[in-house]
Design brief:
six-stranded mixed sheet; four-stranded antiparallel sheet; 12 strands; 4 helices; single chain; elongated; alpha+beta; 237 residues
């Protein structure tokens, strides 16, 4: 249920919309741009849920890209991938086991086609895509293998292999959930900062090291503030 935030006068000042809960250990990413195509049995929602070798925006202290072939094994496994609207299990559209979700890796990324059902949700979703109210394609996944490196002073994460769980159209493709990735980054940084055998634990950090750490914290804080501002603006609409 949406939460209503009231001011001192008791009037509703802001409506905070619920967002679907992402299962523990799972992550979501999204790409802007989907379209409706004419299929043999009706409209088809089509787009790329993921694009290879494209650097993301700052995700709160790091940037990310997806390596070609990251979905190869999960697609071969035959897992039943569901399609939901905004990752909401109450808004079911299709599933790969009955052929109403079709997923294919090509040179660009993860090509996705969805046959919306002839239900209220299916018809509403089709119209929302047609009108542009739904303008992104998103996917939920578990990371099976990734690589972290530092390039040009930035932390870069490359997704090498993932388990695909769900795909579907979304309203806000701009801000992904990065909780799991940030936890992974923190663990990597802890390992990097562990003192070697020939360095005393009491050795103070150099001014350069302190400056770099402060800069990373500032970047993550700014990204979080941008996210909160963005969501608050759209919640008031």
């Amino acid at each position: 249920m949406p939460l209503e935030k009231k001011n001192d006068a008791g009037k509703i000042d802001e409506v905070i919309l619920d967002s679907p809960k992402i299962p523990e250990g799972c992550e979501v990413r999204a790409c802007a741009g989907i379209e409706l195509r004419d299929g043999e049995g009706g409209p088809v929602i089509a787009g790329y849920a993921a694009v290879f070798d494209r650097l993301s925006v700052d995700l709160g202290g790091f940037r990310e890209q997806i390596a070609p072939g990251a979905f190869t094994e999960t697609l071969k496994s035959g897992n039943d991938v569901r399609s939901l609207v905004n990752h909401d299990s109450n808004q079911r559209l299709a599933r790969s086991s009955n052929g109403t979700v079709r997923l294919k890796e090509d040179k660009q990324g993860l090509n996705t086609e969805i046959d919306p059902p002839n239900t209220t949700i299916g018809r509403d979703t089709t119209e929302d895509v047609r009108s542009g109210l739904l303008d992104g394609m998103s996917f939920m996944f578990r990371t099976l293998d990734d690589k972290w490196e530092t390039k040009d002073g930035e932390e870069l994460r490359t997704l090498l292999k993932v388990e695909l769980l769900e795909v579907g159209p979304v309203t806000f493709p701009a801000y992904p959930d990065t909780t799991v990735a940030l936890r992974s980054l923190d663990q990597r940084n802890i390992k990097k900062e562990e003192p070697s055998e020939d360095v005393s634990e009491d050795t103070p950090a150099s001014p350069e090291e302190i400056s770099k750490r402060v800069e990373k914290i500032d970047r993550r804080t700014k990204s979080t503030e941008n996210l909160e501002t963005y969501l608050n603006i759209h919640r008031r609409k």
